[in-house]
């Protein structure tokens, strides 16, 4: 009987936390980025340097292959030349490659682009193994900390600093918030002050 009282006593707290997340009482940015669905990442993801794309041009096996987005944000495709990929979705890149190929010898090119490998994310600060790590869909900040060997004894385990790829602003999130990591993000675990 006592156990069931404790179990039900926690429900109001759970609902209060769930309501605060859904109503945006967290910072607006954290509420937005907490609820990014993993399936939508590949559809709305904007390509950038170090991403690898798999390009298939139907009927053109010499063009079909994997290509890396270079530091200038371009991919070099045979018969199409350098095509701007940085800042585009895969669907937009398909259209750009098709347009470039249709100017050459390929008539009515049908192009499919998929992400073969996302650019890595970076984690540093008070974790055991800071550095560059491969991105996996659905990765959270806590998953990233675990991949880096966990916290050091000096870590402030209550908050995390996150700078999204392409941003110059570092945002603060509570460590227990289910914040998704995106490709190219920089995660910093701060030091605890005694």
Tell me the number of helical segments per DSSP (H or I, 4 or more residues long): 5
State the CATH architecture of the largest domain: Roll
Whole-angstrom Rg: 22 Å
User: Helix/strand-derived class?
Assistant: alpha+beta
Please bin the fraction of helical residues. Answer: 25-40%
User: What oligomeric state is this?
Assistant: single chain
- End-to-end distance, in Å? 41 Å
The name of the CATH superfamily of the largest domain reads Outer membrane lipoprotein wza domain like
Count of β-strands: 10
CATH class of the largest domain: Alpha Beta
Keywords:
elongated; wza like fold; single chain; 5-stranded mixed β-sheet; 2 domains; alpha+beta; Outer membrane lipoprotein wza fold like; 194 residues
What does this protein look like?
With 194 residues, the chain is α+β, with helices and mostly antiparallel strands. It folds into two domains: 83 residues, Outer membrane lipoprotein wza fold like; 72 residues, wza like fold. The strands form three sheets. The protein has a five-stranded mixed sheet with strand order 7-6-10-8-9, with helices on one face. It has a three-stranded antiparallel sheet with strand order 2-1-5, with helices on one face. A hairpin with a 7-residue loop joins strand 1 and strand 2. The longest helix is centred in the N-terminal third of the chain and has 22 residues. The chain is elongated and about 70 Å long. The chain starts with a helix and ends in a 5-residue tail after the last strand.
